[in-house]
Design goal:
- With 282 residues, the chain is an alpha/beta fold.
- It has 3 domains: 88 residues, Elongation Factor Tu (Ef-tu), domain 3 (Beta Barrel); 115 residues, Nucleotide-binding domain of ferredoxin-NADP reductase (FNR) module (Rossmann fold, 3-Layer(aba) Sandwich); 49 residues, no CATH class.
- Helix content is 30%, strand content 31%.
- The protein contains 9 helices and 17 strands.
- The chain has a 7-stranded mixed β-sheet with strand order 12-11-10-9-13-14-17, sandwiched between helices.
- β1 and β2 form a beta hairpin.
- α2 packs parallel to α9 and α5 runs parallel beside α6.
- The chain is globular and about 60 Å long.
Length: 282
């Protein structure tokens, strides 16, 4: 069993949770992910890892409570245990000294953006970080990101903090200023990553994104996370999760992520109804 040793609510629907998982903590590298089960009967969901502490044998995840399983995960408290934590899975981020790198993170994508940004800076790159959120109260890890980059820009959709606009707007401003950018790495919601890719492709700026495809086993066996990269079919869990953004067929990914929307909605509503009954609110 994998004990929850610390839990912190970062925002209304966003939780940071530290879990005892020594084998994973010893091996996980920036860019990789885990798959966990809340209970023996529960589904397996992939989540990115914000940080690890190999000495303590812990990993820290940051997740948004949007579906049945993440909502269920959010009901657990310190001292509770998860049924399983499997990892590390996927390939680590390719880190080397590229030059000037722009790290773009949106929403909970900042959880994986943080270790990647830190590794890029440690490798000697000049790192510019752009953080985005719908509003200031949903902005994550600003202080932590500031420590692992050379320049930090904040964007919020409603203008409650930083630039009023999207992360792509800030990236365009840097390009318009004549900044020489050797690579962009974008991690966040699918529409955000596609917009970044569309912006950088005609300019020839190498762009890498981290995909969060539908996933079941995480070993390439089920084929649920398949994506089209150039003229090849690949699997996010074993070939990714990071890919060349300019080679991705974004339409296929968008359509596949919508396959189970209705089922997910029903599952979420049933779980919330069950929770209300358990709490005596029905």
């Amino acid at each position: 069993m994998y004990e929850i040793v610390k839990k912190e609510e970062l925002a209304e629907v966003i939780t940071r949770m530290t879990i005892s998982a020594p084998p994973v903590a010893r091996k996980l590298k920036p860019g990789q992910f885990i798959i966990l089960r809340v209970s023996e009967e529960g589904e397996r969901i992939p989540l990115t890892v914000f940080s690890t502490d190999p000495e303590k044998g812990t990993i820290t995840i940051i997740f948004q409570k949007v579906g049945k399983t993440t909502i269920h995960l959010g009901t657990l408290n310190e001292g509770d245990s998860l049924a399983s934590v499997t990892g590390p899975l996927g390939n680590p981020t390719h880190i080397e000294k590229f030059g000037t790198v722009v790290s773009v993170s949106g929403g909970v994508g900042t959880a994986i953006g943080y270790p990647v940004t830190k590794a890029l800076k440690d490798a000697g790159n000049h790192v510019i970080a752009i953080l985005g959120a719908r509003s200031e109260n949903l902005l994550l890890l600003e202080d932590e990101m500031r420590e692992v980059c050379h320049e930090l820009f904040i964007c919020t959709d409603d203008g409650s903090k930083g630039l009023k606009g999207f992360v792509s707007t800030q990236l365009q401003m840097l390009i318009d200023e004549g900044r020489e950018i050797d690579q962009v790495i974008a991690i966040g919601p699918l529409p955000m990553m596609k917009v970044i890719s569309d912006l950088t492709k005609p300019l020839g700026i190498k762009t890498v994104v981290s995909l969060d495809s539908i996933m079941i086993d995480g070993t390439g066996m089920c084929g649920g996370c398949r994506v089209k990269i150039g003229d090849k079919t690949q699997f996010t869990c074993v070939d990714g999760p990071e890919f060349d953004a300019h080679q991705i067929d974004w339409d296929i990914i968008r359509d596949r992520k919508r396959i189970y929307v209705q089922e997910e909605k029903v599952s979420r509503e049933r779980f919330l109804e069950h929770q209300c009954k358990m709490n005596g609110k029905a």
